[in-house]
Design brief:
Helix content: over 70%
Order of helices and strands: HHHHHHHHH
Radius of gyration: 17 Å
Distance between the termini: 43 Å
Shape: globular
Number of helices: 9
Number of strands: 0
Strand content: under 5%
């Protein structure tokens, strides 16, 4: 019989993979149209950085689930970002990539200066938690536009719904394994996910 932790691990893994794949319809449309239009690349760039930070945290604490899931997240985020970059113009995307690269490499450099394993785990835990909140909230960059235009056409429905489900699953996993770095950002992520779903319910596409 599966334990509660095993069931939640499965649920969190499935919802996370669905969340990662939620960008595919949008990316396919961008590739077909050969134009990124008004779509923001921030969610995908944040996914890359978030995945790399949690990958490092998972390696430090030896959690195979965190390692596997976030390696997949970083790779898929890189793919989405590349396709987006191939079909957008202007310097805006380049600046966004530069900021994302700085956000990824800076913590990995700082961690080399940590005086102990424990301090390294704490540092990566805080950094990863912060980036998780940014990842879950990144689709809300369109929130003001949605409210102003009274249309949720610029929002990715699957991404918003799965963001909520994914955060709730990981919050439960963090509770079961007694890891506040997993628990706390995902509680906030659940709240942000609910906000996205509410926007979809209030405003038509």
């Amino acid at each position: 019989m599966l334990s509660a932790v095993s069931v939640v691990q499965l649920l969190a893994t499935v919802t996370t993979f669905v969340l990662f794949s939620s960008g595919l319809p949008m990316i396919r449309k961008i590739a077909a149209d050969k134009d990124a239009g008004a779509v923001s690349p921030i969610p995908w760039l944040t996914q890359v950085v978030n995945g790399l930070m949690w990958l490092k945290y998972g390696l430090l604490v030896g959690d195979k689930m965190i390692i596997g899931v976030n390696l997949t997240g970083a790779i898929s985020g890189l793919y989405y970002s590349k396709v987006y970059g191939d079909h957008t113009s202007g310097a805006g995307f380049g600046r966004a990539v530069a900021r994302a690269a700085a956000a990824a490499y800076t913590p990995l450099l700082i961690i080399q200066l940590m005086p102990s394993y424990e301090s390294a785990v704490l540092f990566m835990g805080y950094v990863s938690s912060l980036l998780s909140v940014l990842l879950f909230g990144s689709p809300l960059v369109n929130a003001l536009k949605v409210i102003r235009t009274k249309s949720a056409a610029s929002m990715n429905v699957l991404q918003s719904v799965m963001s909520c489900a994914c955060a709730a699953s990981w919050a439960l996993y963090g509770l079961l394994i007694h890891d506040n770095f997993v628990l706390m950002p995902n509680i906030l992520g659940t709240v942000l996910g609910v906000m996205q779903v509410l926007l979809l319910l209030i405003y038509p596409r």
